[in-house]
Structure formats: structure tokens, C-alpha cells
User: Fold these one by one.
Assistant:
Number 1:
Amino acid sequence: MEKLFQHKAFVWALIAGLIVLPLLTQPLGAGWVRIMALALLYVLLALGLNIVVGYAGLLDLGFVAFYAVGAYLYALLNSPHLSEHFETIAALFPNGLHTPVWLLVPLAALVAALAGVLLGTPVLKLRGDYLAIVTLGFGEIIRVFMNNLEYPVNITNGPRGIDRIDAAEIAGVSLGKPLDLLGMQVHQVTLHYWAFLALVLLGIVVCYRLQDSRIGRAWMAIREDEIAAKAMGVNTRNMKLLAFAMGASFGGVAGAMFASFQGFVSPESFSLTESVMIVAMVVLGGLGHLPGVVLGALLLAGLPEVLRYVAGPLQAMTDGRLDAAILRQLMIALAMICIMLVRPRGLWPTPEHGKAAPRPQNLPKGSFSRPHAPTAEVPSLGEAAR
């Protein structure tokens, strides 16, 4: 399978198929295209977390915080919310803020990267479980802040969220309105799908280049043995901060596009469950392996929607005694457990981590000989003194 992706013809054919796919599913309803668009958004989040967890080996359970930062930044700068609550902004922008997407997306990446550095600075010396607990707390702090920044100054509108968010506009084409293309009407969900696909392809190229770069090798050295990496001259402090910043920037971009897609953001969209799901996507697919991460994200993003059609009949069989949502979550958990039991290193692990153990050589019966490493002659004390 790895060799297929090395052929340019196969890659271009795959990209062309992904571009045409929403046009083929549009007649079935916008719901299926919406599921595919959200799956691509989760792929972008998983790619960002893979930099932190898969490459640098830093367990981050608060990645959803950067997702929230990007979403709220887009919502504040592309809606009438600030103009309605601040007189100065209302005088300057009476019709509300309508920042162009070419400025907002890089800004969301930059602000999220700064938040990543802010998180990474105090936790540089933490590892394993302690790092996971701190990052988990950071994610919850951001969510609580978004939930309470309504008084005394209304910035996030609290648990009610921010609505009336403008859809992104790219090259004069609004993603929030249907587009007539060659006599065919393309839904706004399909337009967002194409935008997400372009960002995912760009993210894959960036991650692929990082993986084999000097920075990527430094991250992997830190992941395998931080003390040895430091002894070899790797600046572990700067490399860790760079990993946090790079991963967070992916989350910020994904959050900005999520706000454009939904037209509404609230703290409920950035709960701990989202962080756990993103981590599960990376681990389930294969840590540090781009095809595996993409596969894990697509599987876990689409599985809940597929199981929705299974949970409904099961609920009907029990006369409504079982909650369909809880039953669906139970089936997702069981599916994940079964997959991890069968493929403990992920569905598509890296080749070096997924190689089979070497087979023992067939020796003659009763033979206990084993190869010895060649030894150099040790000089005598007299020769050494001379």
C-alpha cells in the first residue's frame, strides 16, 4: 500500500476522486456531504495533534483548546457581535466586522500557535501522565473561559455562543451560498468540503516535509529518548515549543473553518470528549504515520454517523428503553476496543514500528552455537605503555 502512494498517477487519481465525490453524493442529500466535510475537518485536527503526539511524543489531551481559539477568533472578527457590545467598534464598523478569510486563517494559525507556546512553556520538564494532566487542565480552562467571558464585559456571549457568523469568501465566491457551476448547482456544503480538502492536502504536504526534515528528526529523537537527544546537541526546549506551536496552528485553522461552516460557535463544541476523540484518531490510525492518522480520523469521524442507523433499530427493539445516543457511544467504544486488540500499534503503523519479529535460524539438532561479535586483540600492559 505504501508503494501506491509513491506513484504520482495514483495520488492524482485519488485527489480527483475526492473532488468529484461530493458531486456524486449530492443527489442523496446534503447530510452525507456534511459528514464527509466534518470528517476532513477532523483529519486536519488529527494531523496537527500527530505533530505533538506522534512526532515529538508529547501527550496532549487539551488540543481542543486551540480548536476553540481559532473558532472564536473567526467568530469575533466575522460577525456583528463586537459591534453590538462595544460602542467604539460600532462607530468604526457600523455593519459589523467582516474580515476577509485570507487574513483570518493565517491570523487564527498565529494566535493558536502563540497559545501553544503559552501551554508548552510551563510544561517543558513534564512527561507522560503529568503532561497529560496539565494539558487536560489547559483545555478545560479555555472552555470555562469561553463559557464565562460574558460578564462584566461580553466577549464570547457565554454559553449562548456567537451566531450570525459570515461564511468564508474565497476568490469572490462565498462558501455560504450555492454556486452554479457548468449548469450544475453546487451546495454550500460541497463548497466547504472542497475548501477543507484543499487545507487537508496542504497539511499533509507540510507534515510530510516536516517528517523527513531536520526538525522532524529532532522531534523523533526526543520521542525515543530525550536525554540522548539532548546529549547529541538537540535543543529539546525549542523543539518541544515548536512542536506545540506547529500542532496548535493546525487546530487554529481547523477552528476558523469550523466557525465558517457552522455559522455558530459555543463552548459545548469544544468539550473534553472532542480532545479524547482526536487523540483516539491518532492512536487508532498509527502514531507518527500520516496515512494511518488520516485513516483513523476518517474512521472515527464517520463511524458514529454509520452507527446512528444501527442504534435506532436496536432502540426500537427494546421499546425505547435504551437511549440511542448512549447506545451509539457504547458501540463506538466496543469497535475501538476490538480494533486495538487486533491491531495494538494502530490500523496502519509506521513500517519500522510494524515490522514482524525476525525469525530464528534453523540450527542442527543439539547445536547450541550462536554468532559472536568479532573481538579486537587487547594489547598487553607493556605494549600499551610503549
Number 2:
Amino acid sequence: MGSQPLPACCYSIETMDSILLEKRLSGPLHRSDIDFLCHQVNGNGALREDLYRALFSADKRTGDNAAWVMTHLSEIHDGWLQERQEALIDEAMKTTSATRRRLLMTLLLRTTFKKETLRGDFVDFCFSLIPRADEPVGIRSVSMRLSLVLCRHYPELMAELREIVSMLPQSELSPALRSVAKKIMR
């Protein structure tokens, strides 16, 4: 009989530590668990670092849950997340989990992409996801949004992005994809 994660109500502010955080992330989470974990992590730099490290867990559920909690944190300071942009990009490009990829890319939208540090491999990666019908709509949509942000300083990349989007079968696009496509085509 394996050990089951404790329900959120069994934790107190005094007892939340990295071991309990990891145990909680390794099990199923509900919205109330997310709210509780966010409350624990906000304002606690050590737990925030533990949560960040959990993003890279080899265990799919732990990594996915860490990314889910991270997207709900209200106190992710721009500088803190910005310092981790490279690692987040690397993980988004290599993870096999569609859930984690979408959530990491959503986190990346909260960072600033500078013209002088633009990563061509990440632009190519985002471009490659846009036309793929086998990718979830959420990933394709966030790829389009990231591409728009990444390409804004480069007219030639914007032209390439518009070309990719113009080749998408408009009648088959979900409302989310259609909305982002309209912004790109402006």
C-alpha cells in the first residue's frame, strides 16, 4: 500500500516545508490545493525555489503540478522569473509533457524578451508548433502569442509568422487560435 498525499487541510503554515511540498505535488491536485500551495509559497523564497526546482522533476505529475501552481502564484516578481527565462525555455522545448510545455510557455509570457538576447532556436520551436494539428490547441495558441512577442523587433520574422498563420486552414481553427491569428495578421 503506497503512501497517499495528505489533503491540504492537514498542513499548517508552520509545517509546510520542501518535503511536504514535494509530497503534495506528487499527488492529484484540486483548485483548493493550488490556492493553499500558492498561499504557502507566496512570500516564502525557500519554498518558491523548491517549487521552481520541482518544475524539472522527472516525475510527470510532480513537474506538471509544480508548473500549474507556478502559473497561479501572485507574487512571482518579474526579476525572479526573468532570471530563470533560459532554463524555462530549455525545459519547455525538451519536456515530453504537453501540460508542462503549455504551462511553462504561459509562464514565459510573463517575462520580457529582449532583442539582443533572442533565441533563434526558441523562435523556430514556437513556429514549428503553430501549424501542427496534432498539438493541443492551448500549446498552439500560446506558441502563436509567444511568437508575436518574440518577433516584434524583427520585420522579417513577423513576415514569416504571418505567412505561417495565413497558411492555417481558417475554417478549422478554434476560437482561441482564430483570436490570436487575427492579432498577428493586423
